Queue: 2 jobs
Job 1
Amino acid sequence: MKNIVFFFLVLVLAIQPAAAQVKEEFEPEDMTTFMIQVPHGVEGSGLAVGGSNLSAYVFFESYYYGNMNVTMELDLPESFILQDTPVHSFSLQTEYEDWYRFVDFYVPVDLPPGIYNITATAVVEVEGNEHTIVRRTRLKVASKEEIADEIEVSGLIIPSDEDGYGDPSHPSNSLVIRETSPALKKLLKVTDLRIDREELTSTFIGVELTNKGDSTVPVIITYEILDIKTREPVKAFKPAIMGMNADTLCYATLTLTPGSSSLVSIPLYISEGAMRGEYLLRVKVKLTGSDWAAVTKDQKITAISRKWGPIIITLVSSLLGLTAVSFFFSRSKEIMDKFKTRNLVLIALFGTVSFAAINLPMTILWELSHALFGPFSFLFTGLFYEILLYMLIASLVVLIPKPGVVSLFMMVRFLLGGFITGSFTPITFITLSLSAVLLEVMMYAAGITGKNPDPENRFMMGVVCGIADMTSGYASFSVWMVLYRLFYSDWYIMANILIDGFLYTFIGAWFGISLGNRLKKVAE
Amino acid sequence: MIGARSIAEPTIKDTIVHRTDPRAKILILISTAFVAVTLDNPETMLLLFLTILSGFALARMPAIKLKTLAFLLILLIWGTIYSQALFYSQLPRTVIFTIIQPDFPVLGWLTNGGLFVYEEGLHHGAIQGLRSASILSLGLLICWTTDSRDMLNGLVGLRVPYSVAFMLVTAVRFLPIIITEVATVITVQRLRGFNPKRFGSGIIKTSLNILTPTLSNCVRRTGTLAVSIQSRAFRANPSRTYLKKLKFSELDKVMVTACIFAAISIVIIKLLYNMYTSGIYYTSGLRPVYAIARGYL
Amino acid sequence: MIEIKDLWYTYPGRTEPTLKGINLKVKKGEFVLLTGPTGCGKSTLLKTLNGIIPHESGGIFSGSIRINGTETIDSNHMELSRGVGLVFQNPDDQIFSTTVEDEVAFGPENLCFEREEIDKKVEEALQMVGMSGHRLSSTNSLSGGQKQRICIANMLAMMPEILAMDEPVSQMDPGGTQEVLNTVRELNRKLKITVLLVEHRLHELAPFADRIVIMDGGKIIFDQPASKAFDYLEVFHRLGLRVPEPVELCHALGIRASPLSAREALLVLNRKNSKENMITPRILPNPEENIGADTSALAGPAGNNDSVNNDSVNNDSIISIRDLWSGYDKNLMVLKCINLEIHKEERIAVMGTNGSGKSTLLLNLAAMLKPYKGSVKVLGEDTRSKNPYSFAGRVGFVFQNPDLMLFCDSAEEEARFGPVQLKFENIEERARTSLEAMSILNLKQDLPQSLSRGQRLRTAVASVLSIDPEIILLDEPTTGQDRVNIEQMMDYFKNNRSTLVFCTHDIEIAMLYATRILVMNEGRIIADGKGREVIKNIEILRKASLTQPPVVEIANYLGVDAFSVTELVEMLACRGSEVINSDVINSEVINSEGIKCEVIRC
């Protein structure tokens, strides 16, 4: 038995070199891969339009362990204009070594439509023997009309997911411009809202393409978001990303086989300067190598602004107002008992004076000054409104330096406005209650009201009133924007809260102390 | 001439609007305010506005009130249109007039690239103005069809503390007196050669000049009024009784229920829709709700 | 009913007590008139009665006040509120509701009465003051007198046993004063409500009072029954208190009697005459002949031979009004067809009830209101094309409430304000002169708003005088003011021969200072003439809710042309040289107040 095993082992070892010697025979088709794609990426016959700059892709790989020299020649129709040399020689030294080239050529504009044959011939020299391998492909050069009929954008989904599929949880044909404030982003991430980048928000556009023709079509899909009226591209939707032009990122390529449909997604970036509104999404499908858009598809889209800053401010202000009112209602007896009857009467009369001297004239003055001074009318109206109002508030606090006095004053103003001019509006409620809460808290904290009140510190009173009014002013702009869907420019808001909110208020409060002191003498 | 009186004084008649319980009116106003700030559909907003205006016909408002209403509405809507024409920041927008060129010294910089009047802003302002116009109109309708004491009783009926109601009624009572006093103070100063129209520091001086005598008078009045009120046992008891008792009629109940129900429904529908559009919450079962919100609200 | 023992009270923040050892007893149903100079502590005393002092005010309080045997210091606010009702000077400052019903119901509601009971109390209280027809009226639509009656009803609804009233008629027009006083008198007499009334106007109130109590410097210095009080005239004179004219007359005639009305004075004179065969007129005309006798003299501007001071008046017309129709609403004209010429140096008193158009006339003169029809020429310029600013410096206006005119930091600044704004020269001199003229130079650094009421009026006038306007307009400067303040101001105008137009309800002031009196009724001038001519016409006065001063009434009945106590005494003294036998005919006439008078017929 042992002898038999030994015999076979010797036989195997003896036969092995003999078998290798048999495979040394070079078989060109088996021991190489030779491939041509015209244009690149297209397996089978491709499609082109006159005027295209295309690349033919030639690929050669050896599976032969030995050395081979290859001379490869690409034979294009004469009417094609080669941009590169069509003949290349190279040698491959070992198994699995490969070689490829892009051979650029130009399909003239005026080339008659038709099917053009392209041949690539590789002459392989192995140990002195030459073998020829030929590969043929066809390129269909079609007219623009023909191509336009063959390719169709069969679906446009915005927003879509990363694969281009639509999400029913988002309204179609809409973009959401989200908050870009870093602080809020951090906060909102906790709530699992989709915030993608530090400075940008992004989504995807899903594009479904159908090739109705019989050629494989390599395409590049790009998009533009245009002003719906002027048809000018809107830069905010093509922001520079890490120093790169968004065009270099916002495209997709696809090779459509005959009779197929494919879905592709393209990223869409929205910068913080983007405005809400209606836009035109224009998707362009270009054949590879051509700048000509074979297919253009327009879709009206709506950009929805979801800037969470104003929304949160509105919510917080409303909640604060409601909480303050609820607190007052639940403990009204204790609060009101802190005030003597004469205090209540005085607050009521101050409320009346504020209504008579400010609200009533301002009903008309406000709008008239808009006509005269346009957006700068706040410089004028603030002189009346803020200065007079804070003179009244400061002087009232000098007379009654108790916590709650400002709230009662504001309450009388609010109810009086509702009684007389029917202005029981949410905005008045939110603004006045926020203003009251801020003033109360800040005045108490600053020692203007409280157990040992010091209401006659002009500077402190001015600063407290100024900051409170700035804050409530800013909040009121947010409320206008959110609840009443009105627009205000940032510069306008800033100018308003700085000049009206702080400067005029400070002046009003400053002089209000003098007024309060005079009135104190009258009261004595 | 639209005066303070035509704005402030109610017209007492016997119509269905006048007869409505003041508490019902206040609740309807609050519900409507919620609806008005919730709506986005221009047609529905217009419908709401027209419905409110029909209340004026129902209340048989006199011409002077209608004139006052028209005047205030024109001012309000025009103000909104004007501001939105300037600040409209939505695309598309078409400049129809340039107020400040972007390269205008200082102001061009201050306004962050100039100031323009946008055509689309005018439309937006007109539509959004309907929102405030609806609230204002209903507020005025209620004020003009409700005697201030009934309104006060309404507030007390809605659990507003009596001390607050007292302050309010005092404020209402003294309003015409104080308006007259402010006018007198201004006249006095003009007769002594002071021109309150002077701008700048003149306005501070004017403010002080107007407020000092007016408030001094108030401070003096406060002493007497407070003593008079105290001598009538004000706040002598933790509670008090009331001569007038308000009664909700069946119609009032139906109206209030309908309004509150409609308001709550609309607010919830819009909230769900906004959560959907913001990507916060979506469920396919609510698609009909989303469709209603998108199409009508 | 009220028992006050050794009451001392000091306001918070003050060192000097306002009440210094007050002792006072008031019986149930008594009507006590409490008077005294300004600042003597009268009002403070009233506030102690229903516990506002010290319960609400704080301050240092000692002594005892018993109301029906209960100490106020130990009682709660509610009990005291029910026991003592307080009524103050200005009804506008006491009413806080918009409707009469709410206002009157306020007290019973606070006392937690049942709804039906509140309703009953409101009705009863309104009936007591004769206002039940106004239950649902707006408080703003009421006249001054009606408002004050509502203030009384407010208290009555709480069923007080005591009504404490602080100058309740001092701001009323004559009609309002009568309404309120008649109401109080009825309440006192019929319902036996104890009344404690503080008032300067003794001459009008004294006839109603059972007792007169005088305070000075926080103490009660005088307490006598009304019938005997004026036996001590020197006390009243010393404190500057105005004594009823009939009392003055009797005392001047050496009669030891204190008649409080014209009727009583006539009775006294008659008694005196018949008993002592003393001074009586020879022939008394039939009083009915007097009524309306002088209407013919009333049309058109009267001559300027002012018998009060015999001023010679310049004939240059500086205000000329032709067919003036004016108002605040074109459908409701306040002034109707006014024709008026005012000459330089004239002093014109405009009289009439509230709402008769007095203030509207003044506003037209200052170009603050424009004619709806007709023309107003002031200093030769038509006001239609002018605004008030164009008359600044030439027309000075002192408003009814001088407080609304004071806005500067000191009285001196007030006086300087006008000249500075108008860029006049000699600003310091002007300010000093005007402050001096009003006797407030020593207060020039004081905050005007914190001065006393009289000082505030004088500061307001000084602020106008410093401009030295050609025309001065005064809108009811006498309302709520002490006699001394009024006289000082008017004396200045008289001595400086200012052209003055002033509205007033005080017929004695008008008589004393006006060169001409205009009486207005329902927007029309119903009388325009010398004071003496106008005052004789009872019919005209009645239309304007005015009454003749008692001395004129007496003189009328005596058939004498006298318009002051001094004049009447002089005239009666002249006639006294003739001894006349006289019969008394017990004929009765009804004077303008509706009081039956016995007339002496010789």
Job 2
Amino acid sequence: MSEIKLMKGNEVLAEAAIRCGCDGYFGYPITPQSEVMETLMMRRPWEETGMVVLQAESEVAAINMVYGAAGSGKKAMTSSSSPGISLMAEGISYLAGAELPCLIVNVTRGGPGLGTIQPSQADYFQAVKGGGHGDYKLIVLAPSSVQEMNDFVNLGFELAFKYRNPALILTDGALGQMMEKVELAEFKPRWTSEEINENWGSWATTGKPASRKKNVVSSLVMGSEEMEANNLRFQEKYRMMEEKEVRYEAFQCDDAEFVLVAFGTSSRVCQKSVQIARAKGLKVGLLRPITLFPFPKLVIKELARKVKGFMSVEMSAGQMVEDIKLSVYEAGSNARVNYFGRMGGIIPSPEEVVEALEEKFSWEISYGVKRSY
Amino acid sequence: MELKDLIKPENLVYEKSKVQEDTYMHYCPGCSHGVVHKILAELIEELGIQEITVGVAPVGCAVFAYNYIDIDWQEAAHGRAPAVATGISRLYPDNFVFTYQGDGDLASIGAAEIMHACNRGENILVVFINNGIYGMTGGQMAPTTLEGMVTSTTPMGRNVDLNGYPMRITNLIAQLPGTSYVTRQAVHTAGAVRKCKKSLKKAMENVLAKKGTSFVEVVSTCNSGWKMTPIAANKWMEDNMIPYYPLGDLKDSVKGV
Amino acid sequence: MTEELIIAGFGGQGVLSMGKILAYSGIMENKEVTWFPSYGPEMRGGTANVTVILSDTRISSPIVKHFDSAIILNQQSMDKFEKSVKPGGILLYDPNGVIHPPQRTDINIYKVDATVTAVEMGNPKVFNMIVFGSYLKIRPIVTLDNVEKGLQKSLPDRYHNTIPLNLDAIRKGQEIVELVQEV
């Protein structure tokens, strides 16, 4: 029987890692996610499942420990918060370039710089556009509840190994610190050496048995033609993700004239905004991207053909709104795309989202038609 | 006597290790890397550990080390090899994991990673090639560049007021309780090669016996970067490098001391 | 049913743990729960507050501007949250930490002399459970049986011997809560 518990998002990340058969966690303390490693150290999974937990000397070292472990076919993960993820950007680019599966969690805080420790979504671009150098994408999952913090650890690993690509959970300090009811997953055993050799023996550096050629994990290519061939293969992989892995949730979008688009914590706020707006007679819906890459372009394109407008609700300065605009443009729609957000670690209130919607779409609301330009 | 009469097992005096790949090396003639690669391949074969060995290559001239030794390899980001090796070794504690790093990689950009890996006593071998210069990128100053030594970024010679002092990082490493064996060797003469091989063998045996970090510095030449012939480079190394980086064991004890 | 509650006071008054016990009791009643603390530099030695939401349906925003109920345990929190109670909502406070009593005329106001009572009970630590009892008397959203189960779940095993004492404190709080103003 599954276990129901009241847990913090950060604690759940740790518990879910143990339960999904994670082999190694490498991290460095940073607020507001230090409870991930603290929880692991208290739980002592090395006694239970053999999972390794190691406090690295820096985020730079942590991500490279993940590289080493991932390169040898193990389920390896790290977690950090915004400034730490910036330090990891080099390593993440190498992981993507060497096509290594791993899980990275960014419990985001306000930036730039040292910023604040309060929740933010200002690392959206960094997460979905790559973040480090070179043409690459991460699979980016955006949980909006403690339950999803739990579920996406396993999902992140599954997708990472399916595509041999790093997966990133983009969450924030609010979800990390919040406690909610969570149904924990059943324990899954860690992979055996036989399973690793069978499934990942074609690339993992497990030590070279006489029966196979050596495996070399590397992102280095000397010839530009060869590198371009690699790039094309990567792009094809990202295209496959866009075709197969898009996940989203739509609330009351069927009859909506205005659609709020929000992920994570701000999507929770917007659920309430939808209720408030509907009580005022406004036909408002909410589209919640669950995968930020691949971005749910298709559903936005479909909605763009029937709604009067979108409003991207963010805890950032207008980042996701660009992806919404691209999708609306690709749909050939003239639906208006607005942005409302708070920054610096402030979560918008449901009421101020509705006020912003009324203000930004005052023309459409007054005249009841789509405004043309 | 014909050639075919000579080629008999009983007449064999030297054979390239089977663990060494049958390929040309990209290293400059006279470079020390090839010799150290050869020793490593021979030792992996002699110790019978090819199937459990994983090497971590650096960024630097040895970036292609993985082309020359027939084992599993990972290519690390610049300076991060000790962290990568930590990730591998912690999850495969029975494998033999080693890093192979140059002076820029280990002592400059990767100074934090090497210090902390050694301080944790990661059960790995570190092979540190110190030739006092950045060979791959065209001869820039390294942390180990000697005072007064001309490089492309110290065209008037290393000035300690501006650039600081040549770093004896191996001496620092030897202070760390996580290390069990720390030594400085060279491969510029047949005798030095034999000694270096002995040291590397001991270091590898220590790792196989789970004694913590073993660290072998090899004071080396870079005749291209130094703009010398291989013979002149060996002589210059003896006259200048070895007095500052004296050869011999710095530490040979059990982990924790 | 949805109850959106703010509990606010000093760090050390048991604000966060009171919220946690309520949340766990809610789970025992098969409700959806969210416990969202203020976190940040102000936590250290300063004020602490937590939003607790219990609902029969999926919970939306953890950020709440107007609360159904507020439990206020010091003056700073009164200054900050008195205005955040919905008209017709509930404000419960302990006069011991509050110099200026609430002025609102459009909300139900209750007080509980929990600081003094806790000392009288011989254990200042049960302060928060007395307050919790008063709240449950006003808003019986979870049964005492489920509170007991919630305590078992939220307290580490080594503190399970304190459960009877905590339940006594809750009952005491239910007895001594006073109505100040009803609308």
